[in-house]
Design goal:
The structure holds three protein chains of three kinds. By secondary structure, chain A is of the alpha+beta class. Chain A has helices at residues 4-15, 24-35, 40-50, 54-63, 83-88, 90-100, 136-148; strands spanning 75-80, 107-112, 124-126, 129-131. Chain A folds into two domains: 4-63, NADH-quinone oxidoreductase subunit E (Arc Repressor Mutant, subunit A), CATH 1.10.10.1590; 75-148, 3-Layer(aba) Sandwich (Glutaredoxin), CATH 3.40.30. Chain A has a four-stranded mixed beta sheet, with helices on one face. Chain A starts with a helix and ends in a 13-residue tail after the last helix. In chain B, the strands form ten sheets. Chain B has a seven-stranded mixed beta sheet with strand order 14-13-26-25-24-15-16, sandwiched between helices. In chain B, strands 34-36-35-38-33-37 form a six-stranded mixed beta sheet. In chain B, strands 19-18-17-20-21 form a five-stranded parallel beta sheet, covered by helices on one side. In chain B, helix 16 (536-545) packs across helix 18. Chain B starts with a strand and ends with a strand. Chain C is of the alpha+beta class. In chain C, the strands form three sheets. Chain C has a three-stranded antiparallel beta sheet with strand order 2-3-5. In chain C, strands 1-4 form a two-stranded antiparallel sheet. The longest helix of chain C is centred in the N-terminal third of the chain and has 12 residues, at 2-13. Mean pLDDT of chain C is 78; it is low at 190-215. Classes of the chains: A alpha+beta, B alpha/beta, C alpha+beta. Chains in contact: A-B, B-C. The B-C interface holds B 96-100, 104-105, 119-121, 132-133, 208-209, 212, 214-215 and C 52-56, 58-59, 69-72, 82-84, 87, 107-108, 169, 171.
Chain lengths: 161, 898, 215
Amino acid sequence: MFTDANKKRATEIVALYPKAHSAILPLAHLAQDQDGWLSPEAMDEIADYCDTTAADVQGVCSFYTMYKRRPCGNLVVSVCTNVTCLVVGGPEVLERLEHKYASDHDVFVEEVECLAACGNAPSMQVNYEYHEHLTPESAEQIVEDYKAGRLVARGVSGGLA
Amino acid sequence: MINVTIDGKTVEANPGDLLIKVAQENGVYIPRFCWHDRMKPVGMCRMCLVEVEGIRGLPPACTMPVAEGMVCHTETPAVKQAQDDVLEFLLVNHPLDCPVCDRGGECPLQDTTLAFGPGESRFVEEKRHFEKPIPISDVVLLDRERCIQCARCTRFADEIAGDPLISFVDRGGHTQVLNHPDHPFASYFSGNVVQICPVGALTAKPYRFRARPWDLATVETSCGQCAVQCRGALQSSSNRLVRLLGVDSDAVNHGWLCDKGRYGFEYVHSDARVREPQLDGKTVSWPQALDAAADALRSARDLHGAESIAFLGGARGTNEDAYAIARLAKGVIGTDNVDSQLGDGLPAELILGVNRAAIADLDTAAAIVLLAPDLKEALPVLHLRLRRAALECNVPIIDFSSVPHGLTREVTHALAPLPGEQGKRAEQLVGALNGNAADAIVAAAAATIAGRSGNIVVVLGRSNLAERSDATVQAAAALAGLANVKFLSALRRGNVHGALEAGLAPGILPGRVTIEHRDAVQQVWRTAPEVPGLDAEGILRGAIDGTIKTLVLVGADPIADFPDRALAIEALNAVGTIIALDGFGNASNQRAKVMLPVTMFGEKSGTTTNLEGRMQRVNQKVSPEGIAMDDWRIASEIALRLGDDFDLELVDEITAEMIKVSPALAGATPALLASSHDGVRIPVREHATEIKVRKNNAGLLDGEGAVSWEPIKADVEAVDVELATHESADESADESAGEAGAAVIDSGETPSADKATITAPTAEASATVAPTAASVLLTWNRIAPSVSLPGRDAYAVRLVSGPALYDHGNAVNASASIVGLRGPSKLLVSAADLQRLGVTNGTEVHVASAKGAFNIAVHAARGITQGVAQLAMGGERGANALIDVGSSATDVRVETIQ
Amino acid sequence: MGLAKGFGVVIRETGKKKRVTTLYPTVKRPKPVRFHGRHVLNRYEDGMEKCIGCELCAGVCPAKCIYVRGADNPVDAPVSPGERFGFVYEINYLRCIHCDLCVEACPTEAITESKLFEFSFTNRNDAIYTKKELVVDDNGRAQRMPWEHWAGGEDDNTSAWMRATSSSGQAAYEDRVNWSGELGFGVRSAESGQTADSMADAPGLNEGDAHGGHH
């Protein structure tokens, strides 16, 4: 359920579009930033705002991988293992982080395709904020900095809403 | 028209038509999965790739509009290769569980693979796996492994049904159709997706594993659940009905069915059926039961006069049933206290006497005026047709509903009258059309109508059962005064229009005439009533005050269906003798002295008439349960015992006699009815030019050719039908009766088309057959009763009530697959009223009217005006427990429970 | 004179040649390999029925003697693997012509024909075999009804059929005769080299392993 503040924000977002249906994507970002994931209940609520059905919202949102349909904590760590990163140690970064945060419900580590940061590989994103030139150790340090609040994370949608 | 060359053959086509359709119409079948004639093309499956000269690559024929001079090839090596590849690709993930799949044997993917596909697959890897069938609703199961992502189901749900409760989820190789976890695919039209699925991904629980395609026998018939009478292919296996598929009828249902129609036939084989005649609760033989019924009627007539006998019902069977009952009541016994509507309809003079519209007229209307109950609940497929008219044909809808309903989103102008003020609002609309608008909404509606050409089609039904019909009649009277207006009846009960046409209403005789025009029936009938009798309300009141002593219930259950339950109970307790013709025992006929079991849907043949006055043949598929008998035969047996031999042995003889005495049916013959495509519309002479005759019926439903996923269509041509005179109709019936009567039982074959063309009426013959003159047909006098609404006190809410699709009738109660779909009754009020009560959604509250009281959950609904409440009819907590039929509005007090 | 001559031939020949008549029914001649007798409904080694109630046998039956109805497999106690099982299975032996088309149509080799043909009935009801009689017993052997005359070996090898493809879907086995050596349950042996000519090599035909799959 949207918080009161987000309900107001949602109404504002819907008002931006000639058709309420167009507001599905921004509202999904808003819900995901609030809850950390896009729950079935959130889709249901979005459907009400957008004058459509929950199935429709689910269909739209499941198309995009940046919408998480299971809880993924506060930090989404996306590690690239595409060609350039593969060559210079991306998989090692991934392995280290996956192992370390395997049971940490706050951190969701995922393997992604090219992040278009090949120049400074290996690279990863934490809530869609770039971090480059990584080693397994520095990557772990960066995540720890986020967890400790030394680095400030955007929403799990990357603050798009 | 433009010229297109397909496989070397030059054909004519309309610009903008899709290539796949043009090809099909000219005998070239391009394989396809996703394209469906009634839906927009998407080009998802890539099966219909063809070569078009001048276009690089292979475009899909389903998204390619034809253009002048287009040259298309569908059988070149490149196309063949593409078809092979597409099929191999589609089969990569398709499991080979054809032997256990309900679609196996009638599967488009199987058939297309055999006809166009490669013999072998190069794919040896593991196929993708999903959990085997998951229920996406109470009646539909989804097997995602079998899905080929053609989007037929999701498009149907969105475009046609307007319930987008399923959609594609995920993407790439993981794409699957799914509903939202909290919202099942609870659409009234969910069964259609099963029918149009080109694989076995969607299967219906009621039909699951019940039969295989090769052991089905099929006849074409009309569904009898509501007055739309959708065309369907009724299939049985081992003498049990197992499936009803929608047949694509341009005029009526476009191939769609609602779930109640599709699965609701299960009641036919229900254990609750009455299978043998009963006398005073004991099973007896037919002769004993018929003797007892005749004795009761005879002694009642001799002791108290014919007026002491009343007939209620008759809207459930065929036209022949209704006609035979009418002849028994009016022509043998001589009473006019006959009503096929149970206080939930509109006056017969109004329905029969206005300028009637066809369903197809909706598509070309200047505007549609909605003066009807929630059509999604009452007449679901008519709802689909209205939706199509609004969305596809851009016809504006002007709405006279007091509460939100299934079409609210599609409404252009909502005049939103308060309950009981429809008449006033309609007069305002007519006023606005004449230049003096009462308010801006009415002015806008009038401007919309004025800005378009064509007919105004008024969808006319009983918009609120919690008030007398007066306000609706008043509105109809106002609208009927407009120049180019047509009325599409929205009465609900299965064959109520057929019953009205057959004379099952007070003051009416068969063929749309009043009892003043007795001459037509008196050619055949022994007598005919001279003064109009009582309607349903009058009959029930007569039973209470003792003037009605014998009541014949013809498939009627007034206690369940009459809007005022208290009155009905009192009446049925008071009446001396009850004789019931019914397939089920119910609250009303439990006291019946004689219970006569009747045949039901699929167990009898004859004709039925739908809400646009379209008379079509219905066919028998299975033998009757027990020793049930057709209503018409029971009527004729009782008449015989009362000393009047109908001398009618076959159903076609009844049809012929009905036509003979019905001025509105003049020109029709049983043979014409059997061979005409989409039947004939009444009055037949007025609509003679619309009649089309089937070139062959075999191609449609010969058991082999019933391809359910494509629109099931017959090969038809418009022919000049020379209508019969009464004399020749009679002869042709004698000729064809045996043949047609026998044919319908086995395979739905009908006499050949040439039988339909009967000798031309000579001027002499026409002149001598007086009743055929159109002038005798009923014309509504447009006299509207004045409506005086009682004042409403501030604590009460005014009730609006209509039927629910899944009601409390036998068809739902005795059909295991759909009885569970019926939700609990709930009272809908405005958010403001809910707040005023100080309760939350779903709280039980106490509702009370002058007639009754009960506790019920209350919910706020968007779009309801403050001071108005909505409650469906039927069941323990139905509106009929609250309604006082004598009052022009029902106000109920809603109180919180302490 | 002619009479004496005739007797002479009999006397001369008596005892010279081996007797060709068998002492039927105590002794039965071996049946031809493609002999079609009474059906059996087979089971898998774990006891599950092979029949999935698909009705293909009923559909193909030229005598319309088979009546099958499928039903949803009970989730907690499945009768056969998969969604569907043969809920009703009946063969009317007053109609059956033992053409074996049902066996060819069966996608799971659930129905095969044994070599038994000696059975008769005293009433019509007995002629309709239901699942109760047709399904093999716990040892994978055909049940022996009191009115049937079984002899040794008649339930060893069952039907042979021509294939469109093999059950693995490989077209290489098209048109080859396949033998279902096993009656009852057991894993069907590999398909390699099964032709009418190399019948003797057909795995499962001469080996005991076909019925050997007891739990």
